[in-house]
Amino acid sequence: MHKYIILAMFISLSYVVQAQDHLTLEQCREKALEHDQNIKSAQADLAINVASHKMSKRAMLPQFDFSASYTYMNDPQVMDVPSWQLPNMDGTPSGVLFTGLYKELTYHNMYDGGIDFSLPIYLGGKLRNYVKMSSYGIGISEQNVENTKENLVLEVDQKYWALVSLKENLLVIQKSVNLLEDVVRETQNRFEVGIVTKNEVLKTQVELNNAKLALIQMKDNIHLAKMALNQSIGNSILDEIAIADSVIIPDTNPVSINEIERVASNRKELKMLEGQVGITSVDEKIARADYMPQLVSFANYGFQNPDHKAEDKTELTWVAGVSLSVPIFHWGEKGLALEKKKLVTKKAQLSYDKAKEGIILQIQQSAFNLNESLVKISFTKASLAQADENLKLEMNRLNQGVVTTTDVLDAQVQWQRANSDFISAKVNYKINQSKYLKTIGQLDI
């Protein structure tokens, strides 16, 4: 019996340890990239465009087709001319008998078949431009896959560091609760010997209750943050997870942007828009090809019954030729279509230029935010050191009986706020760092 109890305890302990595996940021990124449906959808779009590119290239090759048909006629048509006497020049009977004519016009069994061959010789460059257009489609799809991955990684980074921030703040609030419990005990002791009033005891008890309530709320927020992270990395939303990282002071210098035009051109969004401009320009060339002659060659080798003499006899034959089509006049329809394509190309170029300006501004803003985060870390670190020293001083004074509980509570609030600001500054730096790398197209995926 004891063996079963020990085995059950071992299994339970193993499950708890497994459930509490500490996930690093890199592991969360990998799990999210494997799970995300948007990435799988973008990859499917890429596969579709690759297939379209292959099809457009094969449209330039010769085409071979086989076709056949069979018809059975129960009652074939015949031409039956009766016999009659041939007339003389004056119309009188000549006595010469025409024996008549009986000819089958159709037959019981009629069939034909053959192999058809066709090869486009010149279509105004349409096929070549279709190949080029499909290659632009592949490029856009590839950039879309990478951009979708970057967006997901940035989302995971934000949720991960938000959870880190909440856990760090939970420790601060727990320390505040412990400190306030000491203050409540000290104040209660002073009340019992008549040094302070009951109001001082109640005041410290209220602050302790507020801290405990904040502790409960922080735990709830951590639970919600874990649910959000689980959703992004493909876990069950109620899975218990633990994270490995904690925010540390970054040893980093301020960033500066050089060659911002080149950096902006590396953004996946701009490359996608650039590909769209390429597609519209190629589409314009395809519309221009409608003005060109269309030359196609063809050939057929096959069999038929009845044969070309309309006799019930199978015959093999072949034909070959070329087809030429030259557009002459269509009431300006082709010109309007070409003008429409030009406007679409111009619109795509304007969208590209506008997006590039916005991305350049975004890069500058992200660099400013990242550098500002470094400054805030320095400021909040100094404030935390001052608040920590002030709290120690006020606690010593309280123990010596030279200050009131109000002074200690004020110092505790300042200390907790300074800790929270310091944690927020470090977490904001981490998030702004990911955003900055995203804006310059260097976010690891």
From TrEMBL:
Pfam families: OEP
Similarity field: Belongs to the outer membrane factor (OMF) (TC 1.B.17) family.
Protein species of origin: Plebeiibacterium sediminum
Keyword Membrane: yes
Gene Ontology CC: one annotated term: cell outer membrane
Entry keyword annotation includes Magnesium: no
GO MF terms held by the record: efflux transmembrane transporter activity; porin activity
Entries under InterPro entries matching the protein: OMP_efflux, TolC-like
Main location: membrane
Name the UniProt record assigns to this protein: TolC family protein
Keywords: Cell outer membrane, Membrane, Signal, Transmembrane, Transmembrane beta strand, Transport
Signal peptide start and end residues: 1-19
Cellular localization per UniProt: Cell outer membrane
Family annotation (PANTHER family): OUTER MEMBRANE PROTEIN TOLC
Lineage: Bacteria, Pseudomonadati, Bacteroidota, Bacteroidia, Marinilabiliales
